[in-house]
Amino acid sequence: MKMKTAILLVSSKSLPIAQTICQELTESTIYTTTEAKGCEQIESLAHFVKEEFHHFTAFIFIGAMGICVRSIASCLEDKYTDPAVINVDSTGRYVVSVLSGHIGGANELAQHVAAILGAEAVVTTQSDNNGLWALDTLAKKYNWTSSISGDSMNHIITAFVNGQPTALLLDIKDSGTQYLEQTCPDNVKIFYHFNEIIQEDYQLILAVTPFIYSSATPMLSYHPAVMHLGIGCRKNCSPNGIGSYIHKELLNHKIAAQSVASISTIELKKDEPLLLHLFEEFPQSCLHIYSADELKEIEVPNPSERVFEATGVYGVAEASALKSATNGPLLIEKEKGMLSENNNFTFALALDRRVLRSGHIEIVGAGPGDPELVSVRGQRMLQEADLILYAGSLVPRELTLCAKAGATVRSSASMSLEEQFALMKNFYDKGLFIVRLHTGDPCIYGAIQEQMAFFDKHSMSYHITPGISSFQAAAAALQSQFTIPEKVQTIILTRGEGRTPMPEKEKLHLLARSQSTMCIFLSASVVDQVQEELLQHYPSTTPVAACYHLTWKDERIFRGELKDLAQIVKENELTLTTMIVVGEAIDNRKGLSHLYSSKFTHLFRHSEDDKEEA
After folding, report:
1. Can you give the pLDDT at residue 613?
2. Nearest to 175 by CA among 212, 219, 222, 129
3. CA nearest 292: which of 263, 312, 319?
4. Domain match, 113 and 175 both
5. How many domains does the chain have?
6. Res 592: pLDDT
7. CATH number of the domain bearing residue 502
């Protein structure tokens, strides 16, 4: 959420500081008691703050701390409603979080402003300074809702920051639980099943769960919106009491009502008054309306011929719940209800498949070779993996050295595809996390298509983390921009024809007609043929580069002209791990982009606006 920010300038000498902050923070305005260009003039700081205290989400004072404190003192009410307040000294050296550090976001704002000014952020909140989680803001940060049993939030926070033994239950997975796993303090032990927690061993239980647990130990639960409620009903069904009835049924099943993410039904029922009623009962939910065609192929455990005759599907509640939950498990199969005559309704509840703690495969692009060129996400995946299966002939083993203790790390170089599948499926079926590590970016000659077909066949969960390709590493190593304004605007990624035939329309000599920058993979062994085809359209003096083991410790790069390409490759005994680059763009320093002309400065503003819109 964007902050509506008031920047309060105490001294006109600090106007440049205020202007710098205002320029970087959208939705901010500078207020001052003296007339200054670009500022709103006010009568007094204290009067302005008193009148506007709850009309802004944040106040930034620039000046003495005492003025800041006196200005806000009479306005303070509650940490859950007070806005964020920070104070910047008049020299811009220190940025102090003054009020609503966690819940109001002052700590985060202080760090942001400090980064803008190159200043030092001063945050006195104990949990921040000790690198602990801010328990009172986690729910907001990850779109969870919270509930407490056995104690107050303040007592729970106190116990946590004082290092009391804490159990952390994570029975779903999302971005928030990944963060908690990665940053777990020493006093916290992670559990994935509630019945494994020996409660007397802990002073506090934290849980990220859509379920309700009974605990003698004080417990703070965060409920993610991961449940999907499917609804069916008679035409013009009276909604009276149905929402309360479903709430009670969820409670009977130990399911938190706050975790209902969506209400789903068939298009035939989209105007039913019951839907509006349920939105009022589950205000955090959204609505999913599906056509009969979208639902008719979904298998339901309780099919009804009568429902099929009326709607074209065998179970509206179950099918729509399963559809919204990406075919996750039904936790409540179809239940029928009728609270008044002729007001029949059905409902079912499913858990989103994407948050299940089950096996998962992450296909990770390792980059061109340098271990530092794997993405931040890719490295995190490697650190979390239970199995790392890497392409040993192409990926340096150093990339796997960040594996956690106890992880299995195997090279696929000597394995058949069937052996690789068997190994990954063995780990997957145990509910473990697998990283399949490929060189460069997996989408370019990555040999992942057969693997994905196998994963699809066995309904296995997988995702792709992209990597840096060797053609990008070649551009960096050659210190070349592979596009030249008005000369070359296309980069072709291709390969020579070896044992794998090339499609007729993609023969090198046809692609060469454009004289684009061409990056040729896996072709050192057929370099004579490559040179012959390219010379049909590129001038013989076209710059070329043969790049061996890009970004590896033994990287070698050889420049020359196209007429000498085969000789360069052969004389230097270059192997298959060689990228051949051809084109006028190599080492070109001629022609500047029009984007850098003073006539086009508006493009930069438009670019920033586009990002804002996105």
Report:
1. 39
2. 222
3. 312
4. no
5. 5
6. 53
7. 3.30.950.10
Helix (H, G, I), strand (E, B) or coil at 163: coil
Q: pTM higher than 0.70, yes or no?
A: no
Total residues found in the chain within this entry:
614
Pair 201, 295 in one domain: no
Single residue among 224, 244, 269 that ends a domain in this structure:
224
| Alpha carbon distance 124, 127 (integer Å) | 9
Q: Quick one: pLDDT at residue 435? A: 96
Residue 129: the pLDDT is 55
d(CA 526, CA 498): 7
426 lies in some domain: yes
Residue 32 sits in the same domain as residue 114: yes
Q: What are the DSSP calls for 328-389, one per residue?
A: PPEEEEEEEEESSTT-EEEEEEEE-GGG----EEEEEE-BSS-GGGS-HHHHHHHHH-SEEE
- At 161 the pLDDT is 87
> Based on the domain organization, do 235 and 347 belong to the same domain?
yes
Query: At 172, which CATH number?
Result: 3.40.1390
How many other CB atoms are there within 10 angstroms of residue 523's CB atom? 20
- 295 and 341 in a single domain? The answer is yes
**pLDDT at residue 164 in the model:** 94
Per-residue pLDDT reduced to its tens digit, 431-477: 889 999 999 999 998 789 999 999 999 988 899 999 999 999 999 99
Q: Are residues 65 and 109 in the same domain?
A: yes
CATH number at residue 347: 3.30.420.180
Low-confidence ranges of the chain (pLDDT < 50): 1, 601, 603-614
pLDDT of residue 612: 39
Task: Return the exposure string of 327-336: e unless at least 16 CB atoms fall within 10 Å of the residue's CB, then b.
Answer: ebebbbebbe
What pLDDT, on the 0 to 100 scale, is given for residue 393? Answer: 80
CA distance 447 to 533: 26
Model pLDDT for residues 74-97, shown as the tens digit of each residue: 999 887 889 999 999 999 999 999
H or E segment to which residue 390 belongs: strand 387-390
The count of C-alpha atoms lying within 13 angstroms of the C-alpha of 454, restricted to the half-sphere facing its C-beta, is 16
Full residue range of the structural domain in which residue 512 is found: 472-582
Instruction: Give the whole-angstrom CA distance, residue 126 versus residue 275.
Output: 45
Report pLDDT digits (tens) over 475-503: 999 999 999 988 899 999 999 988 778 88
Assigned domain for 237 exists:
yes
Together in a domain, 329 and 368: no
Domain membership of residue 614 (yes or no) is no
Answer left, alpha or beta for residue 510, where phi above 0 means left and psi between -120 and 50 means alpha. alpha
The answer on 349 and 232 residing in a single domain is yes
Residue 49 and residue 71 in contact, taking contact as beta carbons nearer than 8 Å: yes
If DSSP codes are grouped into helix, strand and coil, which group holds residue 279? helix
Is 522 part of any domain? yes
